[in-house]
Amino acid sequence: MAFSWRPTNAPVQTRYDDIWFISPQVGWGVNSAGQIVHSEDGFATSTIQHTADANTWLRCMSFTSPTDGWVGSITRRQRLFKTDDGKTWTDMTAGLPALPSAICGISSPSKGVVFASGTQYPNREAAVMHTSDGGKTWRSISMAAHANLLIDTYFVDDLHGWVVGGKGGTTYDKLKPVIMFTADGGKSWEDRLQNSGIDFPSGEWGWKIQFLTPQIGFVSLENDTAAAILKTTDSGQTWRRIPITDPQRNVELEGIGFLSEQVGWVGGWGHGFMSGSPNGTTSGTTDGGATWFDANGVGRFINRFRFTKTEPIVAYASGGTIYQCNAAEGRGFGGCPRTAESPIPKVWDALDIAAQVPENAKQLTITVFDPRQTLVKVLIDETTPQPGARTFAWNFKTDDGVDAGTGHFIYRIVIDGQATTGMAVRPARAAPNTLGKQVEELIKRFAARAKRAHDDLVLPDAFGKPVSLKSLFDTPPDLMRALIRGGWIIPGEPDRSMFLVAVIGTGPMQGVMAQSDVQLLSDWITAGAIVPQAMV
């Protein structure tokens, strides 16, 4: 059996975080424009049922019938929406408990029963909230004793369910996965990974959970330097960590979906989620995860898979758009070449956002979200805005004057309730040539100290002959080229550059440089490791 993926005609937006289908053709999606989108024909056509506020990021959804559904948000002031007719949506935030302050995962196992978990932020208290009367009353369940962060929620029925996330610290780099199970509707919880014996790396946590059968389940693990999933074959009693070993070295997994125990896909942001250029890579397996291959034709930035298990439509995925999977006789697996998605522009010092404002427009709002889809800037909020073609520049500073960092940034333009979004990638905090000059100055600062060490170390010159490392400090551009030539620095890949990872990160130079200097080196490598021309 061959499986062919293709993008649907869902409204063009930068990101679809979640989808839900109650039949092979009838479904909903939420996207980066804050829209709840509905289709009756597999997203050949669709309607926008609701648009949230300009600073609200919709993350998750769950339905029990064509009329009863819920949408959760990671924005505190608009956390939850409900529909009773499958068409109109009501903001339920006013009646919610304080925790969780952001809803990242939601599951409605039966009509009127909802479990919602969050937050995706490890420095805010993790919790689950629960209603059994359609949202009239809620119970807040603190999960602080079990987790620092919760991402996804899946309940089999009103009593038995799962939440996945991470624990270990208030920053992402300290986290390790948790898989929490309850058999009494959230009154008590058990961490099914607590005695697993798995040596999880720090900076890894659970993202999405899927149960293929009552016995067989999977969890994707988010990690910006590695890729792995968890699998159970005994109803979640025990779990096994399976590395993803495709040629592209996929990382930053989010969406996971298995059509059978053998056939499945994982996707996410790929390399460069927080720096560099995210490429939204997807991986596939046909042997249950024993081996993996590049499956980028499925789609990019995948955050969720949903399966209909019918033919010819067998699955959908949400990410760069909504993608559909069809089964057919023949050979092939993984999807078609990417043709529908345009490249993501790179920016360095400023992000220019263009807007076409019509005559008589009453409101223009432009908001910017960071790599974790958190609002970082309300760039413009105008009533009776000036009409015409306009361009707004953002210098990557927050309202407090703090640099917003690197990675992908999604901006939303809302004109009188009509929203569009775009994405740009900031690989580093300055342009490549500027970074090269800054690294040159960094080497000069450390030259005198460095010359007192490294007596026996050599690097290759332009002709491949060994040259003393100490002598290269006299001409920083030559040292920069030699580090690249010798394989100590790999342009564009800081996580594979031994000088950054093994020498500065964990080796003899650990703690020698200030964090700002290490960040400069990482930015320089990420931006291509451009070397300034040596002065003659």
Can you describe this structure?
- This protein has 536 residues and is mainly β.
- It is built from 5 helices and 36 strands.
- The strands form 10 sheets. It has a 4-stranded antiparallel β-sheet, with no helix packed on it. A 4-stranded antiparallel β-sheet has the order 2-3-4-5, with no helix packed on it.
- It starts with a strand and ends in a 10-residue tail after the last helix.
- The model has no long low-confidence stretch (mean pLDDT 93).
Q: Spans with pLDDT under 50 lasting ≥5 residues?
A: none
- Sheet with the most strands, sense and barrel status: 4 strands, antiparallel
Lateral arrangement of strands in the main beta sheet: 1-28-27-26
Q: Give me the oligomer status.
A: single chain
Our estimate of the beta-strand percent is: 35-45%
DSSP summary, beta strand count: 36
Rg estimate, integer Å = 24 Å
Shape: globular
| Structural class by sheet pairing and helices | mainly beta
Mean pLDDT: 93
Q: Number of helical runs?
A: 5
Distance between the termini: 64 Å
| Overall helicity | under 10%
